[in-house]
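Encode chain A's predicted structure.
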Amino acid sequence: MTMATHVEVSHPSAVADLTPRLSAAEEVIRFIRMKPLGAIGAFIILAMLGIALFAHALAPYDPYLGDYAVQFARPSADHWFGTDEFGRDVMTRIMYGARIALFVGFSASVAGCTIGGLLGVISAYVGGTVDLRLERVMDVLLAFPQLILALAV
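Encoded structure for chain A:
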């Protein structure tokens, strides 16, 4: 019985296809085609960022100034989303509220990543009982449904 041992060995870079680098516009188009839901999410976040950054220029009214003559007004050409109980324009308040919403969301993400990264580094570096205890604490936290845990905190 003989075995096939004849295998051609060559350097991977010698036979690899070298594809040309895509431009930034081509990368964006490729991303939109490959992941349309991700592209829609990115568009929504970028639109919120743009609206939040330029709220002072885009908003037609002062978000804090009330006009009791137009309380609970329905959507119209003057107030696209209507007005609230104090006569404030709802669309303007949403534009300015996007600033707070984005700040809270990004701050929570940064804080969570920082704390999680630090706990992971501490657990990996120290090891032993510290690693075991941190692992058990995480197991307990992950055992609770997230909604109930969010309501409790």
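The chain is about 65% helix and 0% strand.
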